[in-house]
Amino acid sequence: MKVKGIISEEKVTLPEMRGVLLGVESERIAAEKEMSYEFRRSIEHANQLAKTTPEKAEALVSDLIKMEKMKPEIAYRIANIMPKTRDEVRAIFAKERYTLSPEELDKIIETVMTRF
């Protein structure tokens, strides 16, 4: 299948994507359509890495976006990875032109842990 153009684009968390994939899977099973290898691997990947519910992930993103120095892309990345240590958060912010203070790192970890 070739994609001719992108109609719209939006950011979603991994738990939300898992829900979408499972919905498509059930439609294909009901229609008795074959699922491609890539599609099955995508579902398996989402099942293994989604660590929370879509509602909790979206609430986490909204909490993170309210923080200073937080870009939406990074908030979604944090919601997908759910870091538990300062080093994991630093790795997420590694490409940014600024560094976070220990207090900011701890605040991010605390926010993640309350939503986990």
Description:
The protein has six helices and no strands. Helices cover 63% and strands 0% of the residues. The chain has helices at residues 14-30, 37-49, 54-65, 72-81, 86-92, 102-115. α1 packs across α2 (37-49), α3 runs antiparallel to α4 and α3 (54-65) runs antiparallel to α6. By secondary structure, the chain is mostly helical. The model has no long low-confidence stretch (mean pLDDT 91). The termini are far apart.
Note the topology:
Layout: H1 14-30, H2 37-49, H3 54-65, H4 72-81, H5 86-92, H6 102-115
Brief digest:
The protein has 116 residues and is mostly helical. The chain has helices at 14-30, 37-49, 54-65, 72-81, 86-92, 102-115.
Care to count the β-strands? Answer: 0
Largest sheet report: none
Order of helices and strands: HHHHHH
Mean pLDDT: 91
How far apart lie the N and C ends? Answer: 37 Å
Helix count, per DSSP?
A: 6
Helix content: 55-70%
The low-confidence parts are none
Strand content: under 5%
SS-derived structural category? mainly alpha
Shape, per Cα inertia axes: elongated
Gyration radius (Cα, Å) is: 17 Å
